[in-house]
Design goal:
Elements (H helix, E strand, L loop, with lengths): L2 H7 L8 H9 L8 H13 L5 H14 L5 H4 L4 H8 L8 H19 L4 H6 L7 E2 L13 H12 L7 H10 L3 E2 L6 H9 L1
Parallel strand pairs: 1-2
C-alpha cells in the first residue's frame, strides 16, 4: 500500500504532521499494561486540558526530564523549590494547577500501590481487562466519553487524582488501547485488534 493510500485511510485527526502520524501509527490505540507508562500517559493527558494533544506530544521528552521520568516516588518528594523550577521550565506547560496535579497523581498512584493494587490492573478493570473493540465509520460517531470513562474518572478522583474528568479519561483509554477507536477503515484498527 502506498503512503498516499495509507494516508487516505488513516484516522483524520492526526493530519500530516510527521510526529502526530508516527504517534497515530505506532502508539495510539495499542494496549499498554505497564504501570509507569500508564501513569505517565494519564498525567500527560491531564496536561492537555485546554490544549491540543500535539502540543503535549512535542513536549513529552521535556516532561520526562522535568519529572524524573515520571517516577512517582521521586515526584512526591518535590518541595517548593522544585515546584518553582518547574514553573519556570519552558519545556513544559507552566501552569501551577497542572504542576501540582502531577504531584497529586503521584500520591494517588503510591496510595494504590500501598494497598497492593497494581495501577495497570486497577485501570484495566474498567474494561473487564480486555480492550473494547469499536468499529466507527467516521470521527462524528466517536463518543467524547463513555460510562466506563465516567466510572474510571470517579474512581481516580476518589484516590486523589485530578485533571481526570471523563473526557480526559476517555482520551487516555483510547490512547492506551483500552478502547480501539481507530476508524474501521484505518489500517491501525486491525493492528490494534490483533494486539488485543
Amino acid at each position: 500500500m502506498t503512503d498516499v493510500a495509507t494516508s487516505a485511510k488513516r484516522c483524520p485527526w492526526c493530519g500530516t504532521d510527521p510526529l502526530y502520524v508516527q504517534y497515530h501509527d505506532q502508539v495510539w490505540g495499542r494496549p499498554e499494561y505497564d504501570d509507569r507508562a500508564l501513569f505517565e500517559k494519564l498525567c500527560l493527558d491531564g496536561q492537555q486540558a485546554g490544549l491540543s494533544w500535539i502540543t503535549i506530544l512535542r513536549k513529552q521528552q521535556s516532561y520526562r526530564e522535568a519529572y524524573d521520568d515520571f517516577d512517582p516516588e521521586k515526584i512526591v518528594q518535590y518541595d517548593d523549590a522544585k515546584i518553582e523550577n518547574l514553573l519556570h521550565d519552558s519545556g513544559i506547560i507552566r501552569n501551577r494547577l497542572k504542576v501540582h496535579s502531577i504531584i497529586r497523581n503521584a500520591r494517588g498512584y503510591l496510595s494504590l500501590q500501598e494497598q497492593g493494587v497494581s495501577f495497570g490492573a486497577f485501570l484495566w478493570s474498567f474494561v473487564n481487562d480486555r480492550p473494547v473493540q469499536n468499529a466507527w465509520q467516521s470521527i462524528a460517531e466517536v463518543p467524547v466519553y463513555t460510562a466506563e470513562a465516567e466510572a474510571m474518572s470517579k474512581a481516580l478522583r476518589k484516590h486523589g487524582f485530578n485533571f481526570v474528568g471523563p473526557t480526559i479519561v476517555y482520551a487516555f483509554m483510547q490512547a492506551t488501547g483500552m478502547v480501539n477507536d481507530h476508524l474501521a477503515h484505518c489500517p491501525q484498527h486491525s493492528v490494534c485488534r490483533a494486539l488485543a
